[in-house]
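Entry details:
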Amino acid sequence: MSRKLSLIACLSAAFCLWTIPAQAKRLNIIYIPLDNRPVCYDYVQETMEAADCKIIMPPEKFIAGNDNNGDPEAIWDWLQNKAPKADAAVISTDSLIYGGLVASRTHNIPKEVLTARLERLNELQHRLPIKLYVFSTIMRTPRASFGRVEPPYYSEVGPAIFAYSQLLDKSDSKTLPLSEQLTKQALERNLHQADLGDWLERRKKNLDINYELTAMSNNGRFHYLAIGKDDNAPLSATHMEARKISFRTFNMDHGIFQILPGVDQLGLLLLTRAYNEAHGITPAVYPLYSGGAGPATLPQYSDERLQDSVPQQINAAGAKVASTLADADLVLALNTPPNGIMQDSTADSNQFFASIDNKNFVRSLQNVLDGGARVSLADVSYSNGADNGFMDLLAKSGQLERLAAYNGWNTADNTVGYAVSQGLLAASMTEKNIDTLLRQRLIDDWFYQSNARRRISDLLEKHSREDLKYDLGPGEKPILKVVTSDCTQLANKYSFTRNTDFSISFPWHRLFEVDVKVYSNKK
């Protein structure tokens, strides 16, 4: 028997072993999301219910939206008085403390109110005696930000604050040279004191709350706590605060507490962890990288290389890293930039042309799929969308429809977390459900994010209407018509997605994200 046939036989045997028993009890899990963006809300619920898990959420009117903060008091009342019985709960502390992710960056909540809400979390285990999977966030440090997702001053002085945060990080780690000390002092003098003071005060509140949450976790108040590092960089206030928390928690077991990069994927990751633990399984995941820098890639918006962050996300999902391909229950395929330098998917380089590296990785994936592996693809060659050349070749080669899951959205850490979760949960899904979720992500991450969004953004810039990117206003309907047409044309270009019946909407009335609903395949 040839080495290739031997490998295929070995893989086929290994991948037939891991399935969820068909007669397993259907789980009911309470879920309090960060906000109602599709990646935190609809897509999470659809993924879990495709795996035959009932997700119980508070009324949506209590959850943060585009133009409103969430209602922590109403969510708390629902949680302790009106929530039905469940097997576990996955809870965003940002929703229960601040009123959502954006509120955590923009609030002016008095310290005594925050303290009272923390104390309720401390007592939650007594009121809700089930396994509590909890996730919090470290405030992000964006290089710039527009729209209503940061304090109003950030759109003007965000770059200066980011530069200041880098120097703050170096100063805290005692690596700031004299020349940069002078630069830091100049920024402190020149930044508007009210703006800088507001930003620093809110960060301190956030850090203190995370300290308290880790203490609660260490005292057994939660079954598991994850703290996510929102958009950040190797030098930033987010990176500095994560280091401070790590110093305080060095003796805590990773089975009850983790700090990991990314935020928007945490809800689904922890639901997957709850699902795996309820079924008594610890699946093994093997990361398979494309050629070039691969695991050494440092993604945009992250302070950790993939070789460090990917195992963390696998562990957060209640799985483990497989040492060999043959030992894996799931292959996590990662399409990475060959040179390790990640750009946005709207970059001019993201064309429908397959490189030599693309061709080699498609062949590798075909060999693994031929061996019977369950493969989930994390397309992180670009941020905020798919790699056009790679995906075009993968679709035309007939390998795309063989995947258990596909993801290529937002940051690399968001993408990897979703790819791990959807790939693991695919073991419990019907082929129809896998097919539906796969089409949803392809339409969102590939057709919209990398192509329709880029074209409409270029048109808006050409006509000096960049403001519409962040608040579509009266332009929403005509813009929606254009992007839907673009996505439909791309869908019909490939046999797998051709004639798919779907709709697109802008739930937060901005270009950055869409909500894709897949109804059926008309073929």
User: Anything to note?
Assistant: Confidence is low (pLDDT under 50) at residues 1-17. The chain has 18 helices and 15 strands. Residues 431-462 form the longest helix (32 residues). The longest strand covers residues 131-138.
